[in-house]
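Backbone-to-sequence.
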């Protein structure tokens, strides 16, 4: 497993948009899963949970996961709360990296101000039961993508992405290159230049008109 402290430091210099630009195969959770907390930036290995209409497995995960882990819950996209204020507070005590629930979450009076990143598909007052074991640390589907235990979960203002930890270093390096290019383009635009000055727009469009392969790129 790569050094997560090093990878986290590299993530601070980029964002999820640059990651997706650097690697088009990046797994992106659908936008229905939204930040519910004051903090929204996540970086950590997934601790996965699968459950339906019952939050006992989520409680078990909060009490079992290592510090820094991100609880990723496959709740089947159902409008039932699988966590709330007590779970968020407990996750903070345990030093976890965040909670992502494809299902419901509640207690927004606290969660909306919480320093723990909490994401969910729904906000609802109705909680599930606590009588089913569910499954821990198995491949799950969350936000429309497969998440395996140990996959890296990253989030910011743009949304949630999932990376193979063995490829995360190269993807983050490529994302940094994307950000550096963006900075150069922004400097040109701030200096009064146009997008056509910054990119090969004319050449690219002409090539496409001729039916040739071409890539839009910064010049």
């Amino acid at each position: 497993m790569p050094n997560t402290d090093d990878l986290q430091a590299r993530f601070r210099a980029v964002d999820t948009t640059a990651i997706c630009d650097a690697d088009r195969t990046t797994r992106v959770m659908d936008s229905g899963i939204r930040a519910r907390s004051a903090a929204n930036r996540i970086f950590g290995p997934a601790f996965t949970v699968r459950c339906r209409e019952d939050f006992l497995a989520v409680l078990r995960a909060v009490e079992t996961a290592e510090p820094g882990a991100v609880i990723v819950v496959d709740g089947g996209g159902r409008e039932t709360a699988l966590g709330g204020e007590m779970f968020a507070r407990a996750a903070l005590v345990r030093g976890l990296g965040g909670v992502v629930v494809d299902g419901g979450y509640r207690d927004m009076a606290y969660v909306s101000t919480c320093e723990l990143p909490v994401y969910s598909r729904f906000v609802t007052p109705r909680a599930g039961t606590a009588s089913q074991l569910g499954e821990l640390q198995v491949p799950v589907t969350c936000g429309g993508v497969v998440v395996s235990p140990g996959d890296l979960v990253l989030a910011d203002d743009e949304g949630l992405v999932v990376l193979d930890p063995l490829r995360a270093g190269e993807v983050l390096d490529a994302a940094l290159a994307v950000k550096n290019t963006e900075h150069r383009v922004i400097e040109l635009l701030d200096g009064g230049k146009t997008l056509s000055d910054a990119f090969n727009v004319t050449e690219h469009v002409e090539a496409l008109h001729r039916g040739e392969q071409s890539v839009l790129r910064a010049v």
